[in-house]
Specification:
Blueprint: E1 20-24, E2 27-32, H1 36-45, E3 47-51, E4 56-61, H2 65-72, E5 84-91, E6 97-107, E7 110-115, H3 120-129, E8 136-139, E9 144-150, H4 154-160, H5 165-168, E10 175-181, E11 184-189, E12 198-204, H6 208-219, E13 224-227, H7 229-238, H8 273-282, E14 286-293, E15 304-306, E16 312-321, E17 328-335, E18 344-349, E19 352-359
Parallel strand pairs: 3-13
Antiparallel strand pairs: 1-2, 3-9, 4-7, 4-8, 5-6, 6-7, 9-12, 10-11, 11-12, 14-17, 14-19, 15-16, 15-18, 16-17, 18-19
Helix pairs in contact: 1-7
Length: 370
């Protein structure tokens, strides 16, 4: 039996008697600390702190680093200035997704990529396979821990730690490096995967436990709780943020998944551009849509979806009872002709077809402060 990998924060889990860990892609990670509903609600109303140190980080350097990333990713890296980040995707020549990721521009010739944990080795090989000119790709995943502080109180918690006010006031998808925390420094970005305001904190793995406990102590008066993978999944689902392997994959393109705004077909050639341009020109055959159950039942990943005439038209990619809205909701990849909101569908749940309808997604949008 293969031994599960553990993040640098694993010893901290013992501080919480109710923690429950699971095998997540070969990692022993907490699905919950005190309960998914409680953790979900805390992130929506106050704040939650996630250990996402299983994510992968690569350093891309060299004179042609920007040109290389332009070729490898769908978004326009040339629009970034130092201290900015962007969400993007890497595609295969057929338009299928290798991975979705974040690109951080540190300098004109140095970038950091943050990739999905399950794809670290695959992504690293893919990038090195296509290296051009004076470019170096280095896997630095084992050097770093990653904490995600998410929720409406996130900035106030950093402020309580006496973090530089300029960092607390970062714009979305901006970051600062060398930020002082007690006993160490970190890269802090205003990014996240919950649909809420928040920050992601990259710190040397040796200092991760200290930073984790320091943030939790500072956040206690603000209602901060540690949060696990269960709440992370329900939060991102309500906000319609895709999960690789479900809403995105080698067989699902960014356009089909509804993240076409991150595909810049007007920029110079990139891997997958021709296939994606053809999809857009000819019209999508499949689309990712929101669905809500009319009959009683919860749609789950891979449950078949049918049209009213009984024809199979796709399947659910993610589904649950929304902790915020208390409605049985799902995302489904279906034939494009059935994607209009209000369309009646049927979802097969445990051998029985139950009525559902197409609804608008995201299901939840946070109220932004002026």
């Amino acid at each position: 039996m293969t031994e599960l990998k553990r993040t640098p924060l694993y010893p901290c889990y013992a501080d919480f008697p109710g923690v429950r860990c699971i095998d997540f892609g070969g990692w022993e990670l907490p699905v919950q600390f005190s309960g998914i509903q409680k953790e979900h609600d805390a992130v929506r109303k106050q704040a939650g702190l996630f250990d996402v140190s299983h994510m992968g980080e690569f350093r891309v350097t060299g004179k042609f680093a920007e040109a290389f990333l332009q070729q490898m990713t769908t978004n326009d890296v040339s629009r970034l200035s130092d201290g900015q980040a962007q969400y993007t995707l890497m595609c295969r020549p057929d338009g299928g997704v290798v991975d979705d990721l974040l690109v951080y521009r540190q300098t004109a010739d140095q970038f950091m990529l943050v990739v999905n944990a399950s794809n670290i080795d695959k992504d690293y090989d893919w990038l090195r396979e296509h290296v051009i000119g004076d470019v170096s790709v280095e896997n630095i995943s084992d050097e770093l821990a990653l904490l995600a502080l998410q929720g409406p109180s996130a900035a106030a918690i950093l402020h309580a730690l006496d973090i530089d006010p300029a960092v607390c006031g970062l714009l979305p998808f901006h970051f600062a490096d060398g930020v002082s925390f007690p006993g160490t420094t970190a890269l802090v970005s205003r990014t996240g995967y919950t649909g809420e305001d928040g920050f992601e904190i990259y710190v040397a793995k040796e200092k991760a436990g200290d930073v984790w406990r320091t943030i939790l102590a500072a956040g206690e008066p603000f209602g901060l709780v540690p949060a696990g993978l269960g709440a992370r999944d329900t939060l991102r689902f309500e906000a319609r943020l895709p999960l690789y392997g479900q809403e995105l994959s080698h067989a699902i393109s960014p356009l089909e998944a509804g993240v076409g705004m991150f595909v810049k077909l007007d920029k110079p050639d990139f891997i997958g551009r021709d296939a994606l341009l053809k999809q857009k020109t000819e019209g999508l055959k499949r689309k990712l849509v929101g669905i809500e159950m009319v009959d009683r039942g919860i749609p789950r990943c891979h449950y078949p979806v049918y049209a009213s005439d009984g024809r199979a038209i796709g399947e659910v990619t993610t589904g649950t009872q929304s902790p915020t809205l208390k409605r049985n909701l799902g995302l489904a990849l279906i034939d494009a002709g059935y994607a209009e909101p209000g369309t009646e569908l049927w979802v097969e749940i445990r051998g029985k077809r139950l009525k559902a309808e197409v609804v608008k997604a995201p299901f939840y949008k946070r109220t932004r402060k002026e």
